[in-house]
Design brief:
Beta Polymerase, domain 3; alpha/beta; about 40% helix; 7-stranded parallel beta sheet
Length: about 575
């Protein structure tokens, strides 16, 4: 039960309380608790189990602390169970539809009896939603689009969820008797942005109890199949996990086979046949069916004349040809990152001060950070106007003059308004070390208007980076529609960098678009969009995306030294 799961419980409590019309202050206290827990760097489970207290954590009162202790010690929350009896799961599922909050869900249930995704889709398709208070034809059409996106993502999980699930399960299974080795495979190992299931491969010596432990994991909802060498379970969150126990001599071959992708594996087997060999999940075999490799994954590649291909690029997008011609990229690694170029602090909607973020950056081994608080248009985030931004810059100057833990770049995340103009005057933008321009509103403009809007923003001489360029939220919100090719061309003309936003809900640009940006000749930045010091550790997710996009360190500007970065900007 990690911080993320505990935060989810409190967020769900707040949502259900909102649906049933509970006290707004009570609802807000649970939402605040969810945010605080999500942002904590310390593991709550460990604190409670070691007899610690949460009383010093601002925003966590006695009532919330008691519920956290209950969750940690029992794995569940009695209040949530009570609320589940009041509001069926079909209604709660409606909250996953973009644009629907608890109040709209309650309105639709009270007025139209909508208590499921299917009923919502039927009502929207037949024009019944547009007559509800606060809704209309545009809202109805938007809900229909959101429903289509929801259907496409059914059964998929974000990569970050995969890490949470996988790490907890492997930690649990490492206590199995005679376990020698256990590794994840599949799309998770290739670091796809979403995964459909999890594959675990293990080596055990005789008389292991790993399969019995596996089916007794406390998150198991259903045992699909149970055997000595393969067992499949479904967890309470809906994800299927397959565990295979393998012979040591075949582990490398199986790791390659079950990592995939299918298209990559087909190409590898085809290449092996051309050389008179056979490759399978059991190993590499010569024409006489003699096994010549398979214990190590590298055996698969070396026996058919390939250099090792990293899992992230095994998608049959040219990696086989690149390997044959000794042209595989030296993919970027987390250790190459020297700074974070999108960070928010308490001056707007962040949780930590500038100096706290700088201290975290030093812990991460960085040389610099870019503080990019919001501009005034983002009122919900308490965005800064020109006067407040200049005052903020004075503070940064003072910190830099006193030898801050790392160099702090004076920056801003300026809003791109509906017409493509920027939310702040050029007179203050020119004082910035880095200007990151982003869209936070008017997502539904027609393609031509949205394209022109972005290009106009890029033409501003002070804009350096386009933040989270497509605006998507994985499995939650579709990207807004614009001509990516035209925007990339304009970015090249105006010397604007494309961002890979490493926040796990965004990963924007995605791998395909990041590769297109590289091929266009653009440079990229990997930034966390951190709103707390702990979120700066999310950089690794952006690196995964960059690796899937074949990016090398020289393609990413925040692998540059501070001097090189300033020169480039």
């Amino acid at each position: 039960m990690d911080n993320h799961k505990i935060a989810d419980i409190f967020e769900e409590i707040a949502d259900i309380l909102d649906i049933v019309g509970d006290n707004p202050f009570r609802i807000r206290s649970y939402r605040n608790a969810a945010r605080i827990i999500e942002d904590l760097s310390d593991d709550i489970f460990s604190i409670i189990n070691e007899g610690g207290t949460l009383e010093n954590i601002k925003g966590i009162g006695k009532g919330i602390e008691e519920k956290i202790e209950e969750i940690v010690k029992t794995g569940s929350c009695s209040l949530l169970k009570e609320l589940h009896e009041k509001v069926p799961p079909e209604i709660r599922e409606l909250l996953k539809i973009e644009g629907l909050g608890p109040k709209k869900v309650k309105l639709m249930y009270d007025k139209l009896g909508i208590d499921s995704i299917d009923k919502l889709e039927s009502a929207a398709s037949s024009g019944k939603l547009r007559n509800l208070e606060g809704m209309g034809e545009k809202t109805e059409n938007k809900i229909l689009k959101s429903l289509e996106y929801y259907r496409q993502g059914q059964g998929r999980f974000k990569l970050s969820d995969g890490f949470s699930i996988c790490e907890s399960l492997i930690k649990y299974l490492k206590n199995a008797k005679n376990l020698i080795k256990i590794e994840p495979a599949g799309s998770f190992r290739r670091r796809q942005e979403t995964i459909g299931d999890l594959d675990l491969l293990a080596i055990c010596s005789s008389e292991t109890d790993i399969m019995e432990k596996f089916i007794k994991y406390d998150e198991v909802k259903e045992i699909i199949a149970h055997g000595d060498t393969k067992t499949s379970i479904k967890l309470t969150n809906g994800i299927q996990v397959d565990l295979r126990v393998l012979e040591p001599e075949s582990f490398g071959a199986a790791l390659h086979y079950f990592t995939g992708s299918k298209a990559h594996n087909i190409r590898v087997r085809s290449l092996a046949r051309e050389k008179g060999l056979k490759v399978s999940e059991y190993g590499v075999f010569d024409s006489g069916d003699k096994k010549i490799g398979g214990k190590d994954e590298k055996d698969i590649f070396t026996n058919i004349g390939l250099s090792y291909i990293p899992p992230e690029i095994r998608e049959d997008r040219g990696e086989i040809e690149a390997s044959l011609n000794n042209k595989l990229p030296e993919l970027i690694e987390l250790k190459n990152i020297r700074g974070d170029l999108q960070i928010h602090t308490v001056e707007t909607d962040g949780k930590n001060t500038v100096i706290e973020m700088a201290q975290k950056a030093k812990e991460l081994g960085y040389e610099y950070i870019s503080i990019t608080n919001h501009s005034k248009a983002v009122k919900i985030a308490h965005g800064l106007d020109e006067k407040k931004l200049r005052k903020h810059f004075e503070e940064i100057d003072r910190l830099n003059s006193k030898k801050a833990p790392v160099h702090i770049l004076k920056s801003v995340e300026v809003d791109i308004l509906a017409d493509g103009s920027l939310d702040l005057d050029d007179s203050v933008l020119k004082e910035c070390d880095v200007v990151l321009a982003s869209i936070h509103s008017y997502f539904n403009l027609p393609e031509k208007e949205m394209t022109q809007r972005i290009i106009k923003a890029l033409s501003n001489p002070y804009v350096n980076i386009l933040g989270h360029p497509t605006g998507r939220l994985i499995l939650e919100r579709e990207p807004y529609v614009f001509n990516l090719r035209e925007v990339f061309k304009a970015a090249l003309d105006y010397n604007v960098i494309m961002e890979i936003n490493a926040y796990p809900d965004r990963l924007d640009l995605n791998d395909i678009h990041a590769l297109q940006a590289k091929e266009t000749g653009l440079k990229l930045a990997i930034s966390t969009d951190a709103h707390s010091s702990s979120q700066m550790e999310l950089m690794v997710y952006g690196v995964y995306t960059a690796r899937r996009a074949w990016l090398e360190p020289e393609d990413v500007i925040n692998t540059y030294t501070l001097k090189e970065l300033k020169t480039f900007i």
